[in-house]
Amino acid sequence: TQPEVRICLAVTRSLGSLRDSLGSLASRAKVVALVTDVFGQDAFEVAKEVGISSYVYFMSAAMNLHFMLYLPTLHEEVKSEFRDMPNPICLPGCVPLHGRDFVDPVQDRASEGYNLILHYSKRASLADGILLNSFTELEPGAIEALLTDEPRRPPVYPVGP
């Protein structure tokens, strides 16, 4: 089993315990937000149930976040394997990216790993915000593009390393 599949199963199996813990904690203390990594986004419903905000902490580069947020559109527009695309994609503020250079889990669209990455790419729009582990001076073009308003994209907050 691919590592991302095992991580997702662990998170899914932990949601009941998370619900109990957050509910108990929220009744005793002021809990205002749940922050997960990309693979913890299935916990957003639990956060909503207990009345707190949900955020994704994205630990990779701004260009990778841009790609992740664009993947659902790319999935709809490109019917072949991405590695077979004749032209690179051009995300605002980023260098052109050839399909053959995409991360391994998205190279096989029939794989379980691809479907999970696509699932989490779509779920990112449900977050109240995305905390990005980068800063404008490091990735000015990509971060500037991520800070523009886009439909179905939550606010992005570069919080730096």
From TrEMBL:
It is an enzyme of class 2 (transferase). The keyword Transferase applies. Keywords: Glycosyltransferase, Transferase. Coiled coil: none annotated. The keyword Glycosyltransferase applies. One of its GO terms (molecular function) is hydroquinone glucosyltransferase activity. Its EC number is 2.4.1.218. This is Hydroquinone glucosyltransferase. It comes from Opuntia streptacantha.
